[in-house]
Write a structure and sequence with these properties.
This protein has helices at residues 3-32, 50-63, 81-88, 101-104, 107-124, 139-143, 149-157, 174-179, and strands at residues 40-44, 68-72, 92-95, 132-136, 164-168, 182-185. By secondary structure, it is of the alpha/beta class. Strands 3-2-4-5-1-6 form a six-stranded parallel beta sheet, sandwiched between helices. The structure holds adenosine-5'-triphosphate (ATP) and magnesium ion.
Length: 205
């Protein structure tokens, strides 16, 4: 065998050993993760991908035959594609009856609308038939103080034990991050909008 071939086979051998070690580590972590309960997941940050992540998880759950519901706190001016798809799959949507809050410029009306959706959320968060509830763009309701933080925390804490909840939106309140089991922050590296490209159907809504 040439020296070069020896090195190749040594490298393959070392790689195999490293992978074996890694597999043992991962397997032992999988074995020790035995708890099972509803998770609180937060997808926050300034980058694109928060709502699509939430809706992707709803699609994943529904694909397994689980029951899911969606509450949307900031309604865009366009119908989002996920709603059309998921409503056909039996997912119930509760949508805030105003446009983007920075468009309406009517704080009192926005607060009333937020509180109405939150009342619906409270029903969803006490419904033992629901396996997953997506609270899309809810972070803003807390940063604008449209909803009472203690009430939100208490409702999340008292939800059915098996129920998963996903909260999306920028600048998530610290108390919700502390309460959550899984938190991801989507960072913006760049966005097409900054290059003057308008929101694209099927990609941005
Ligand atoms: P998506 O729904 O695509 O997952 P998102 O939920 O992470 O986006 P939002 O802050 O809810 O982001 O904004 C919704 C809309 O704003 C989408 O059309 C999205 O493409 C756009 N958007 C998201 N991040 C940025 C950004 N950093 N700059 C400009 N536009 C953005
Ligand atoms: Mg979003």
């Amino acid at each position: 065998m040439t020296d070069e071939k020896m090195t190749d086979s040594n490298m393959a051998d070392n790689h195999k050993k490293r992978m074996q070690k890694l597999k043992e580590k991962v397997d032992s972590r999988i074995d020790s993760a035995t708890d099972e309960r509803g998770l609180l997941i937060v997808i926050t940050g300034n980058g694109k991908g928060k709502s699509t992540s939430g809706f992707g998880t709803v699609a994943r759950a529904v694909g397994h035959g689980l029951n899911a519901a969606v509450a949307q706190f900031i309604k865009g001016t366009w119908a989002c594609g996920e709603r059309q798809l998921l409503e056909n799959a039996g997912v119930k949507f509760s949508v805030m009856g105003t446009g983007f809050t920075w468009n309406t410029q009517d704080k009192e009306k926005d607060i009333t609308a937020a509180k109405q959706v939150w009342l619906k959320c409270k029903e969803l968060l006490s419904d033992t038939n629901l396996d997953l509830v997506l609270l899309d763009e809810m972070t803003y309701m807390l940063s604008y103080k449209y909803l009472d933080l203690d009430d939100v925390i208490e409702t999340l804490n008292n939800r059915p034990k098996h129920q998963h909840v996903i909260i999306t939106g920028r600048a998530c309140h610290r108390a919700i991050i502390d309460l959550a089991d899984t938190v991801s922050e989507v960072q913006s590296i760049k966005h097409a909008f900054d290059s003057g490209i308008k929101a694209q159907k099927g990609i941005d809504w």
